[in-house]
Amino acid sequence: MRRATILPGVALAVLAAGRSTVGSLFRDRARLHPDRPAVETAGPTLTYGALNERVNRVVDVLRGFGVARGDRVAVLSENRAEYLALELACAKLGTILACQNWRLAPPELKHCVGLVSPRLVVVSERHVELLARAEVGSIPTVRLGPELEERLGQARGHEPEIAAEPEDGLLILYTSGTTGLPKGAVISHRAEIARYLVYGADLGVRPGDTSLAWPPFFHMAGTEPALGALVTGGKVIVVDGFKPDEIAFHVGHEPFGHLVLMPGMIEPLIAELRKRSVRPVGVRLCGAMADLVPAHQIAEVTTLLGAPYLNSFGSTETGVPPASGNQIPVGEVPLRLSKRQNTFCEVRLVDAEDRDVPIGTPGELLFRGPTLFSGYWNAPETNAEDFRGGWFHMGDMFVRNADGSLDFVDRVKYMIKSGGENIYPAEIERVLLADPRVADAVVVRRPDAKWGEVPVAVVAPKDATLTSADLLARCHAALAGYKQPKDIVFVTLDELPRSTTGKIQRHQVEAWLRQRPAAPGGRSAASRQAGPLPLS
Length: 536
What we know:
The chain is an alpha/beta fold and 536 residues long. The protein folds into 3 domains: 19-241, ANL, N-terminal domain (Rossmann fold); 346-411, Luciferase, domain 3; 416-528, GMP Synthetase, Chain A, domain 3. The chain contains 16 helices and 25 strands. A 6-stranded mixed beta sheet has the order 6-5-3-4-7-8, with helices on both faces. Strand 1 (37-40) and strand 2 (46-47) form a beta hairpin. It is globular and about 70 Å long.
């Protein structure tokens, strides 16, 4: 077979012919199916044609603020149709949309907005006050609602030239950092399109499937399935947060490819499905993060939905991969949660020197593949460390079994996974240690029936007047609700177990806490004491 020959003058044209982006794929769906329903909300349903015209008007509004390819636009909003239109407008313009977490405390939000230096902030009326308290500076702001509608009425709706390239950033989604402040993960058009392909290959999501968008759009579980539906001709039903009654209603009236369910939300949905005696129209797959869900809930919800449960292990940085390739059958109470490697990715397990470990030996998971993100925004040292050797170091320890399956062992950089949100102890410890009455503190995870895991703080005070109420108030002011410790236990400084280098041994603290019974109301008896409590 003769090798293809490309003349020098044709090379650029060949490259251009292969550079589809999220914006261009959506534009093509709108041309093919202008009358097909695209976005359904509590208001009128938008067709593909109407949504595309709206997207084009948003592009014109953004250009009026000087927004261009490579710029960042920050958005702070609940789930709504305008959010999706803004994402698609940025996709056409080549702009990166930085999706802000409205659950953050003002200091955290200030950091996240300032990190990306946006040219424009788009905010919903619901979160105007939060944005003001974050004191992000004099960045031009547009409010969703009447202000945006007035601007759109004056904007042009013609189809713009697609400015984006496949490796351009599309989204910045924030993930907690080991330094205690969130990092901005840049997701490119290439990565997003590859993630949609994995949905089809491994999750069975088909072109034209309906997506129920109840997870927040600042989270990959909300925004990626929704955009994936819109570039493949599907419909997105937008729900303003987790509302079991609305989700149960839609399950009884619409077929879904993958119905996203998170730890902590499954029990209320089970109750709603039973109360309404819902007969699902058709769900091919449900759930996520089986490790954090009680086994009996998995069996019950799969029975009610008539759909297997996704035994997933992915991340904001990698998408659904690397280990979301198998499912738990309907009605089964899982005894093991071994994972299967996804398609379209490569995986290695290595030791501390990045040498491959044998089968049966724990190693850090290294990842390579087209779904991978493009690094953390403005974090060159972190990127150099995490991408060393041309592989992304996930920081998660796995064991590969003889049959090729993967068992999760632990996190290299200790992290708490609570209800689908990542919490690094350093985020909370930074706040606790800011109190001058705290000599030292460590935050560990504790299993929780509803959320999978929750943070618990063990504090060594140096002032007997310090109370748990003082520290909880400090955390309330500085941290998102899900990051606030569910218990505060007081010990003496000498009782904190340490390594030879002086580091507190989290696993020893965690093991000790597991042996202690919780007091009624969910807080340990120690959390109401100001004095020390022996650790052994």
